[in-house]
Amino acid sequence: MSASDHRRAEAAGDPDRPREATRAPLLSARGLRLAFGGVKAADGIDLDVMPGEFLAIIGPNGAGKTTFINMTTGYLRPQAGSIDYDGQPILGLSPRAIVKRGIGRSFQLPQLFSEHTVLENAALAIAAHAGLWSPLTPLLRPRYREEAMALLDRFGLAPLAEARADALNEGARKLADIAMAAALQPRLLLMDEPTSGVAATEKMGIVETLVRVLRDTGVTAVFVEHDMEVVERFADRVAVWSQGRIAALGPPEQVLNDPAVLRDVIGIEPAHHA
Ligand SMILES: Nc1ncnc2c1ncn2[C@@H]1O[C@H](COP(=O)(O)OP(=O)(O)OP(=O)(O)O)[C@@H](O)[C@H]1O
């Protein structure tokens, strides 16, 4: 289901269902500031992410998109501001404590154990979720391997279970990395450029798979994306980052037709946009 179909289905849904405006955000960032020397990577970021939504972050290189993900997942501490998740402050928690609260992430460069198979990687991720962080024992336990196989199956990766992670093409590697993040059963998943480096022919199929799995399991997603076709098709809302600030925020049909966004972020003159 595309994001616009999803929005229509929601609008046509249960009339007793609370309206978007009255629902509490799952993630709420206020006044985030972080400078590296003279570079303002976050210069007053305010953002609410609603439960169940897919929010795309777009913007030029160096705008501060990854910095926002790093602050939300405990890898960077802002110099000012607050981040609440599920109504609780999370700033100051370690990355691992934040994962335990239910926020997962995938990285621009997939973080798989390259010399292990895809199945072994999945077993390790599932064991980590069960609280076992030791590197080898999970591989010996059939229970983790069975759960790992079920996870891979959901992501369409079962045929690659016995392939070594370093033998995967970029699309499968990205999908496998997101499957590992999903093994930790997050309620909110932050993905940094899930389609970067993926061949154009594979891209849509990969995004369709991951969106289907995440929607089926009720995961809220924030993803940094440079491909506007992916954004248009799969995002419920788009946030445009520019020099550490959010320059525009709204549904893709509105934001991606905004002349200033087209010119400054996507880099085309509005008149040339058919
Ligand atoms: N740990 C750090 N130390 C110093 N400078 C940093 C650090 N992290 C980010 N920066 C700087 O902060 C700015 C924002 O970086 P960030 O990686 O968040 O941008 P981005 O929007 O994700 O860019 P890209 O699309 O290239 O990934 C950049 O100028 C970057 O060089």
Automatic annotation (TrEMBL):
Keywords: ATP-binding, Nucleotide-binding, Transport. CDD domains: ABC_Mj1267_LivG_branched. InterPro entries: AAA+_ATPase, ABC_AA/LPS_Transport, ABC_transporter-like_ATP-bd, P-loop_NTPase. GO terms for molecular function: ATP binding; ATP hydrolysis activity; L-isoleucine transmembrane transporter activity; L-phenylalanine transmembrane transporter activity; L-valine transmembrane transporter activity. This is ABC transporter ATP-binding protein. It comes from the Bacteria. Residues 1-22 have a biased composition (Basic and acidic residues). One of its GO terms (cellular component) is plasma membrane.
